[in-house]
Design goal:
This protein has two helices and four strands, in the order βαββαβ. The chain has a single domain, classed as Macrophage Migration Inhibitory Factor (2-Layer Sandwich), CATH 3.30.429. The chain is globular. The chain has 129 residues and is α/β, with parallel strands linked by helices. It has a four-stranded mixed beta sheet, with helices on one face.
Length: 129
Amino acid sequence: MPLIRIDVIEGRTEEELKLLADAVHDAVVESFEVPARDRYQTITQHKPYEMYIEDTGLGFERTNNVVVIQVISKTRTAEQKKQLYQKIAGHLQSRCYIDPADVMVSITENTEADWSFGLGEAQFLNGKL
């Protein structure tokens, strides 16, 4: 049930975006142990001058292949988060040829009361999930 927002610089094909989304989804399923159909992703493409993603002084260079991934999820362990970062970077490198230096991930946590999957209901709170 994590909600995933993926931001990239425009220019990728539909196939490339699908590969990218699939790679991120597989990393989430593997790391957070969620069902495969627990997939909520949006991809936003930007002009190069709309994304300024630097390195926080870590000494690596970003390219126009940069990918920013925002994960909104209920609480996960530090180990699950570390595994997610590694799997996302690994999957994007092996499947999409994106350098791990071009991958930035941020996780925002919330609670079960912060989700409605539709019908105006809080499914985690009313026992449907």
